[in-house]
Each structure stands twice: as structure tokens, then as C-alpha cells.
Structure prediction request, 304 residues.
Amino acid sequence: MKTDRLFAITIYLLNHGKTSAKELAEKFEVSMRTIQRDIDSICMANIPIVAETGVNGGYYLAENFTINANTMTEEEYEYTLMALKGLASAMEDTKVDDTIEKFESIAGEKKQDIQLDFSTLKERDTAKIALLREAIQAQKQVIFEYTNAVNELKMHTVEPIVIIYRWYAWYLIAYSSSKEAYAMYKLVRMDKVVISEIMFQKSHESPNAILKNMEQKSEEAIEKVCIRCGKSVKAKVIEYLNGKVEQEYENGDCDISCYIVPREFHWFGALMALGNGVEVLEPEWVKERLIETAEKILKLYQEL
Prediction:
């Protein structure tokens, strides 16, 4: 419905700031002409949208504009409550529990058809997350030891920006003044973390903007792997490697594609564990790494 789209555009501008008509058209899957008409309709509703022309132009909301909290629907309250309960399952924070209580009083007690359970994330890193959150909120640098993917141990001093859970692990996105760049640090590889008394020396964009920029720069780090597997391990390949079936054969074998981050470890461990149930078709370097590792394991046990 057009009314829903007008409200969604307003919310998007409120959260993302200046946005071009082209970006809005792509986001809401309509033409640029439709976006221009929608902007006119929003302005007629006395919502102050500023239009800026030129190469870097776009639409944005006037600085003093805010959204009334009562505009949330009952369903939106339920979605928010669902996300909060997922967060509460992942970390120990009484403030999150208190926030859930408030939302439950608004949304009411209803049977939820989806529940998010991240309770396994409480098993470790809880204290580290609390310390890093304290540093982020205080805008103070942190110092820690870090073991990278090639087992090198180094000291790091960074300005912590945000903690993120992805690729089955917690990460810290931070700015390294020595590298003059943003970097992602895996929490499980961080040790002896302390908060420095030195405040941030740099002004940073929003975490979403920083992450988006990092992803654009590191797209080449994600590689496609093509695997042929037997019927007996097909389900495991799809589950553990998030694989997509590309072709199926009469004997039950199939070709599956998946995307991996080369510097991460879990995908390689999964391939090794699947043994002769899978055959890597490409890329060549993955096949070579599997062969090299298998030969080392064989040699180790032959020498016993």
C-alpha cells in the first residue's frame, strides 16, 4: 500500500540521513518518478523533507523531526520483543531483561511463532563483551593481545566501535590508529583486554556505515567453493556449509556451491570432517590444502 511505503520512506530517511532518489527507488522497488511523487505526498503531510540538488544531492529530514513512539503497530512491538528475547538469551544484562518487561506490558502476552535462542553464546566471551561495551560507551581505547589466523601474537591498541555476531562467532570492529584503518577482531582470539585512559582520537561514522564500507572493500575475501557429494552427506553439506544444490544426478550425488571466508577455519574443518563423502571441484587451492593436511595427518599416525 502507498501509505505504508510513505511511512517506510520517512523511517528510512530518519535512520539513514541524506539518500538519493535512485537509492530510495532501489530500496522500495519503484521508479524514481514514483519516489518523487511520494516525497511530495510526505511533504503535504507536513513532514519536513529537505531536497538537495547536485551530484551529491538527495532527500533528508529536517534536524528537529522525530517519530512518535505510538506509530508502532502491535505486530512491530512483537517483532521487537522477539529480537530482545534473542539478545537476552545471548548475554547477561539486566537492562535487556527490564526492557523486555516494558515491551511485554505493551505487546501483551501472545503466543510467538518464532523464538531466537542464542544461549550457547553465553558459554564464553561474556565478560569480554561487557568490558568492550564499557569502552565503547566511554569512547576509550582498548589494549589487548591478539592471535591472528596465521598464529602470530601481537599487541593492539584500538578505538572500539561495535561488537557484532557473524560467521558463528563474536567480533569487534575497531579503528587501529597504527594502521589508519578499521579492522575486525575475533573475540575468542583476544586476550588480556584492558581499557585505556586515552579517549578516542578520531571521529567515527555510524557502525552500519563503517561495516558497509568494510564489506565493500573486502568482497574479494569471500570465495565460492563447488563440491560434489554423495547422498549420505548432502544434508550435512547444506547444514554446515550453508550449501546450495546446483545439480542432482540419478545416483543421488549432487553438486553443491557454498561461499567461504578463506581466513576462517570452520568451513575447512567441516570439509575435513566430511572426509571422502565430498570432493572439492574448485577452487584448486582448496583441493591442494585438503591434500596437504590429509598427508600430514597420515604421516603423523604412520610414525606412531
Q: What stands out?
A: Residues 11 and 32 are 18 Å apart (CA to CA). The two ends are 71 Å apart (CA to CA). The chain has ten helices and eleven strands.
